[in-house]
C-alpha cells in the first residue's frame, strides 16, 4: 500500500513506499554514530552520506551526526523525518533512494554543547567536513587570524562557532579525557584540503595551548580527499517529483548525477572505515587528483557560470548546447588547462576532460549557472589562478585563461549595477568595486586587483595584469553579443 502524499517521510512511512524506491538495507536502530560531519548541506547528503549508507550495511559503527554550523534549516527539515531523506539519482531514468545514514542533525548555533559532546564521544572516530572554501577562514595558505569568527573563537575557545574552533575544542576534550583523537577528513574543493585544514587547526591550537597543538600534531591525521559529483541545488520541482515517486512528502530531498567519485588519502589515526568496499579509492597520490579535478572540472564550471550568465544562459547543459560556449570551454580545458595539470600516475588529462564534457552535456541535469557562480571570490583563486601561475612559470600562454576571470569581473559589475547582491562572503567589497567601475579596462581591472585575498600575489605580475586587461576589454560592454564574439575569437 502506498502512503498518502499528505504524510511525511519517516521510519513509519518507510515500509509503505513503492517497491521502486530504494531504502536502507540495514537495521537503522542498530547503528551507532561514528562520524561527525560539519556542514550537512546538499553535497554531503548526496555524496559522502551515500557511501556511508552502503557502508552501514557492512559495519554498523559509522552512522553520521550531521552538523550545520550556521543555520537550523537542515535540522528543521530532517528532524521530523528522523534524518531520512531522498536522493534522486538523475540519468535517463531517475532512481529514488531513501538514505538513512544521517542519524542525528544538530544546529551548532543553538546546540553547541551537543556538538562538542558528540565530538568527544569515544564512538566518534572520524570527523568529515564540507564547509565550502570560505568555511576554512584562510588567508592564502594560513589561517586568517583577523577573521571575525577566528578572533571570537580565540577569545572563547570553549564555546566555538567556526569549524576550526570546533575541531580544536573537540580534540582538547578528547585529550583531557584520555581518548585518542579523531581523523579529520576535509571533503571540500580545495587543493591540499587536508594539509590546509591541518595547518589551520595547528595555528589555532598553538595560540590557545601549545601542548595541545603538539598533541594534535603528533596524534591526529588530516587526510586529503577529492570529491566529485554534480549536485544541483534542491528546488520545488524536485520536491514535487519526490512526493510523486514516494507518495509522501520529503522537506529536503537532494539530487545528483549518477557519476560519483571519492578519493581519500590513506591516513586514518583512529580506525579506518572500510570505505574501499563501497567504492571509495584510497590513494597516496591525492595531490594530483584534487588539482586535476579543480582545474579540469571546477574551473570550466566557473567559466561557464560567468560567461554563460553574461549571455543569459541558465544551466550548464544549455551552455553546452550553445556552440560558442561549448567550443570555448573545450579549448579552455584541452589546450589551456590540461598542459598545466601535473598528472597523477596513469592519468590521462585529455580523456578526463572528455568525460567531464560529457557530464556537462547531460540534459537530465538542470544545474543552474547562478548556483556555480556563488562564492566567486573564494573559487577563482583555487580554480583558475593556480593554473595561470603555473602557466606563467612555464612560459605558456595565459590569454584564454584570463577570459573567465574577466568574465567574473564583468558578472560582478553587472550584478552591482543592477543592485543585485552576490552570494559571496566578499559581497560588500565586490559590490562597491563593481558599482564604481567605468567600463574602462585599465581602471576597472586595477580596482578588482586591489582585492588582495583574491589576487595576491599574482596581481604584482605585469604579464597577468596586461592579459587580464585585454580579456576585460575584449568582453566590451559584456552584452550577450559582445561575449559571444569574444568567445568565438578566443
Ligand atoms: C561546482 C561544483 O558549484 C560549483 O562551484 O563547480 O559544486 C561541482 O559541481 C562539484 O565540485 C562537482 O564535483
UniProtKB/TrEMBL annotation:
<feature type="domain" description="Mannitol dehydrogenase C-terminal">
    <location>
        <begin position="286"/>
        <end position="473"/>
    </location>
</feature>
<dbReference type="Pfam" id="PF08125">
    <property type="entry name" value="Mannitol_dh_C"/>
</dbReference>
<dbReference type="InterPro" id="IPR013328">
    <property type="entry name" value="6PGD_dom2"/>
</dbReference>
<dbReference type="InterPro" id="IPR013118">
    <property type="entry name" value="Mannitol_DH_C"/>
</dbReference>
<dbReference type="Pfam" id="PF01232">
    <property type="entry name" value="Mannitol_dh"/>
</dbReference>
<protein>
    <submittedName>
        <fullName>Mannitol dehydrogenase family protein</fullName>
        <ecNumber>1.1.1.-</ecNumber>
    </submittedName>
</protein>
<dbReference type="GO" id="GO:0016491">
    <property type="term" value="F:oxidoreductase activity"/>
</dbReference>
<dbReference type="InterPro" id="IPR050988">
    <property type="entry name" value="Mannitol_DH/Oxidoreductase"/>
</dbReference>
<dbReference type="InterPro" id="IPR000669">
    <property type="entry name" value="Mannitol_DH"/>
</dbReference>
<dbReference type="InterPro" id="IPR013131">
    <property type="entry name" value="Mannitol_DH_N"/>
</dbReference>
<dbReference type="InterPro" id="IPR008927">
    <property type="entry name" value="6-PGluconate_DH-like_C_sf"/>
</dbReference>
<keyword id="KW-0560">Oxidoreductase</keyword>
<feature type="domain" description="Mannitol dehydrogenase N-terminal">
    <location>
        <begin position="34"/>
        <end position="276"/>
    </location>
</feature>
<dbReference type="InterPro" id="IPR036291">
    <property type="entry name" value="NAD(P)-bd_dom_sf"/>
</dbReference>
Amino acid at each position: 500500500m502506498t502512503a498518502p502524499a499528505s504524510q511525511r517521510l519517516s521510519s513509519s512511512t518507510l515500509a509503505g513506499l513503492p517497491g521502486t524506491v530504494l531504502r536502507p538495507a540495514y537495521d537503522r536502530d542498530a547503528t551507532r554514530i561514528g562520524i561527525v560531519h560539519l556542514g550537512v548541506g546538499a553535497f554531503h547528503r548526496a555524496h559522502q552520506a551515500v557511501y556511508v549508507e552502503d557502508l552501514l550495511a557492512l559495519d554498523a559503527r559509522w552512522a553520521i551526526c550531521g552538523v550545520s554550523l550556521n543555520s537550523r534549516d537542515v535540522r528543521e527539515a530532517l528532524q521530523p523525518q528522523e534524518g531520512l531523506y531522498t536522493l534522486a539519482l538523475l540519468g535517463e531514468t531517475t532512481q529514488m533512494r531513501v538514505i538513512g545514514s544521517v542519524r542525528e542533525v544538530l544546529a551548532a548555533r543553538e546546540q553547541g554543547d551537543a556538538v562538542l559532546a558528540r565530538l568527544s564521544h569515544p564512538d566518534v572516530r572520524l570527523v568529515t567536513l564540507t564547509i565550502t572554501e570560505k568555511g576554512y577562514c584562510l588567508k592564502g595558505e594560513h589561517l586568517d587570524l583577523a577573521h571575525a569568527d577566528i578572533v571570537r573563537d580565540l577569545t572563547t575557545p570553549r564555546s566555538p562557532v567556526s569549524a576550526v574552533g570546533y575541531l580544536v575544542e573537540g580534540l582538547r576534550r578528547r585529550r583531557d579525557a584520555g581518548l585518542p583523537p579523531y581523523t579529520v577528513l576535509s571533503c571540500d574543493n580545495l587543493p591540499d584540503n587536508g594539509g590546509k585544514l591541518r595547518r589551520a587547526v595547528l595555528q589555532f591550537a598553538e595560540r590557545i595551548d601549545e601542548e595541545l597543538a603538539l598533541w594534535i600534531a603528533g596524534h591526529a591525521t588530516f587526510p586529503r580527499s577529492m570529491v566529485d559529483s554534480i549536485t544541483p541545488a534542491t528546488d520545488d520541482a524536485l520536491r514535487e517529483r519526490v512526493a510523486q515517486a514516494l507518495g509522501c512528502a520529503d522537506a529536503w530531498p537532494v539530487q545528483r548525477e549518477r557519476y560519483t567519485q571519492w578519493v581519500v588519502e590513506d591516513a586514518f589515526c583512529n580506525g579506518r572505515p572500510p570505505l574501499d568496499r563501497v567504492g571509495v579509492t584510497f590513494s597516496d597520490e591525492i595531490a594530483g587528483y584534487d588539482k586535476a579535478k579543480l582545474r579540469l572540472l571546477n574551473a570550466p564550471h566557473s567559466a561557464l557560470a560567468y560567461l554563460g550568465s553574461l549571455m543569459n544562459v541558465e544551466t550548464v547543459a544549455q551552455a553546452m548546447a550553445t556552440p560558442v560556449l561549448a567550443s570555448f570551454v573545450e579549448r579552455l580545458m584541452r589546450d589551456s588547462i590540461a598542459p598545466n595539470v601535473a598528472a597523477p600516475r596513469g592519468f590521462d588529462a585529455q580523456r578526463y576532460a572528455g568525460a567531464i564534457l560529457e557530464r556537462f552535456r547531460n540534459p537530465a541535469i538542470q544545474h543552474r549557472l547562478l548556483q556555480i557562480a556563488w562564492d566567486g571570490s573564494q573559487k577563482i583563486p583555487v580554480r583558475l589562478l593556480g593554473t595561470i601561475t603555473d602557466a606563467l612559470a612555464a612560459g605558456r600562454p595565459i590569454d584564454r585563461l584570463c577570459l573567465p576571470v574577466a568574465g567574473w569581473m564583468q558578472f560582478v559589475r553587472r550584478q552591482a549595477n543592477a543592485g543585485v547582491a552576490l552570494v559571496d562572503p566578499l559581497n560588500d567589497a565586490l559590490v562597491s568595486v563593481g558599482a564604481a567601475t567605468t567600463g574602462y579596462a585599465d581602471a576597472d581591472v586595477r580596482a578588482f586587483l586591489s582585492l588582495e585575498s583574491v589576487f595576491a600575489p599574482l596581481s604584482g605580475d605585469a604579464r597577468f595584469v596586461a592579459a587580464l586587461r585585454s580579456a576585460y576589454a575584449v568582453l566590451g560592454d559584456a552584452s550577450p553579443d559582445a561575449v559571444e564574439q569574444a568567445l568565438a575569437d578566443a
